[in-house]
Amino acid sequence: MLAWVSLVAFLIALGSGPLIIPVLHRLKFGQVVRDVGPESHLKKHGTPTMGGLIFIMPLPIIVAVFDVHSLEAWSLVFLIWGFAVIGFADDFLKVALKRPLGLRAREKLILQLVLALIFTWVVGHYLAGGTRYFLPFGWGSVAVSWWWYTPISILAILGSGNGVNLTDGLDGLAAGATAIAMVFFGFWGIAFHHHTVSIVALALAASLAGFLRYNIHPARIFMGDTGSLALGAALAGLAIVSQTTLLLPLIGILFVVETLSVIIQVIGFRLTGKRVFRMSPIHHHFELGGWPEERVVSVFWFFSILGAFLAWW
Q1: Cα 266 from Cα 273, distance rounded (Å)
Q2: Which range has the worst mean pLDDT, 21-35, 80-94, 180-194, 207-221?
């Protein structure tokens, strides 16, 4: 059945690309590339954004067909699509209404917090996940009280959503790295007989594979905040449901490093007046160091694979 899940999700995503990309072109929903980025990115100006629609659309269809009675599955759909709607609103304000910064940071944070609270409450009170977490490196598991479970889960959702958002700066980078993490969750679900985790994770992995057909360098479409926020929520949501929240920094190790690079850059500049990196997030540091975009992406994908292996180990 999981093979059918993957095949159907892949074909829906692959088939929707030629339908969605021309529509976004006609609507002139093109990416605005700011001058503060690498000069090589200026040629990407006008490439359609909001491409996250391609890989989130198959998910509710897959759940309706293969896991329709699972409250866990529909809770994940709620979280992922909720974050996608926030991202879509942000993208729409940027490209359609020409408001460069989109939603205000406070507006996005409040909306994300509300969704995270609802999801965490549902999972914690009504679903089978409970409040036990697996520990890394085979150290067993640990029970966590509700008072710790709630803030840890919310922090994971908010941090993961924005971590993927920061990573989405090169063609195929965030999509490929997230697909790797989704494969991890897919096999985790199989190994631990967690039907819903396998279905949702492999559906997203296959959808991302279809999306990469149009997002790999040179990208014909970008995922935008529509996609990056949804993927971050998916990572954290799957971790919470599968009780692997404490493994998430390893599963999504690239997103942690990208986020830390921004924090280090800001703090370093404020303390010393000098930049630690040529540019942050760190993928731009390597670009400005002379690495071709494709090399940065492939090396960072390999780094993501190592993180997934460490999380499994």
Answers
A1: 10
A2: 21-35
